[in-house]
Request: fold
Amino acid sequence: MRTKGIFILVTGFILIILISNPLWAQPGKLKVGLLAPLTGPNPDWGKKQVIGLEMALEAVIRDTGNNPAQALALYRELAGKEGVLAVIGPGQG
Reply:
C-alpha cells in the first residue's frame, strides 16, 4: 500500500512540473486522462485515484471496469479522440 502512495505522489509532482513548465505550454487546456477501476471487483483504489487527480487538476476520467481490453480501448480513445497529453493507468485493482 505504501508503494501506491509513493506512486501517486511522484505522479502528482511530474504532472505539476509538466503543467508549470513553459516549454510545454500550449494554447487551450491541458488534458490528462485517467483509466481507473471504478466498478468491478476492487473499485476503492480507482475512486482514490479520481479524488487525488481531481484535487490536482481537471482530468478526463474513464472506467476500466478492471478489464485490460476495455482499458486499452479507452486509452486509445483518450489519446486519439480526447487529445489528452498524458494518461495515468491502466488502473487495475
About this structure: The chain has a mean pLDDT of 76.
